[in-house]
């Protein structure tokens, strides 16, 4: 029932835009009951909703507080849909450990949380350092958790340099050959990743999972 599916997804998108966490929770459960692909719901409802509201904010038609409420609502939906992605993936085996965070100076966490959730749903252990993570904290986390991969997110062009700085600090600490490093976030590109010596870049959550699998030769 394509029409019903699309209706549900657009209601979920609207509820995200409205920052209505209760409604997002209810609709996310309905999406699962209706048998809709949970990944599609993340992309077409949650992410689309945030980006739509973001456009309104840029045009002066919404407030920062609206975006914060929408981000909170999105996380409620993401946690429910993530469980369904895990279920659909069958028995999860441990595929590797990833440390992820948004770099220092940047508090955007929606994209990073989506990447973290999809990786978890795909059988990776994820240690999420949160937002505004100083380079030194990434270094400590490599020592503390011995991850296979370190992922850095940034949404601000001004904090892109922190990705570079963090890689430099990891090198200086003598830890560079112990981990693969991947980066992402709207202003970043594959070229930027190469330039700063990262091992990989991905434009979205689904390709981030593919990238990690490729880097770790995980099936
Ligand atoms: C939501 C939002 C906010 C929310 C954040 C809420 C939250 N909890 O995260 C709030 C309102 C708090 C906010 C604040 C600010 N924001 Co803001 N924000 C946005 C907005 C609208 C959407 C970002 C988003 O969530 N996108 C949706 C996610 C799903 O996409 P994504 O993050 O790109 O992630 C995907 C990929 O990039 C990739 N990915 C992401 N991370 C990683 C990591 C790895 C390792 C990999 C492999 C892949 C990967 O996979 C993700 C999933 O598919 C954007 C506009 C836009 N269109 O991007 C502006 C935007 C990013 N913000 C902007 C600005 C300027 C700010 C503020 C400085 C505003 C201010 N004056 O206070 C502050 C930042 C303060 C700070 N120090 O960080 C600018 C940045 C401009 C620039 N190029 O530098 C933008 C582009 C808006 C604009 N056009 O002006 N913001």
Secondary-structure map with pairings?
Elements: H1 2-17, H2 21-33, H3 38-58, H4 64-88, E1 97-102, H5 110-121, E2 125-128, H6 135-145, E3 149-153, H7 160-172, E4 180-184, H8 190-195, E5 200-201, H9 205-216
Parallel strand pairs: 1-2, 1-3, 3-4, 4-5
Helix pairs in contact: 1-2, 1-3, 2-4, 3-4, 4-5, 5-9, 6-7
The structure holds cobalamin.
Could you explain the architecture of this structure?
The protein is α/β, with parallel strands linked by helices and 219 residues long. It folds into two domains: 2-88, Methionine synthase domain (Methyltransferase, Methionine Synthase (B12-binding Domains), Chain A, domain 1, Orthogonal Bundle), CATH 1.10.1240; 97-216, Cobalamin-binding domain (Rossmann fold, 3-Layer(aba) Sandwich). 59% of the residues lie in helices and 10% in strands. The protein is built from nine helices and five strands; from the N terminus they run H-H-H-H-E-H-E-H-E-H-E-H-E-H. The chain has helices at 2-17, 21-33, 38-58, 64-88, 110-121, 135-145, 160-172, 190-195, 205-216; strands at residues 97-102, 125-128, 149-153, 180-184, 200-201. A five-stranded parallel sheet has the order 2-1-3-4-5, sandwiched between helices. Strand 3 (149-153), helix 7 (160-172) and strand 4 form a beta-alpha-beta unit. It starts with a helix and ends with a helix. The relative contact order is 0.11. The mean pLDDT is 93. It binds cobalamin. The site of cobalamin (B12) has 37 residues, from helix 3, helix 4, helix 5, strand 3 and strand 4.
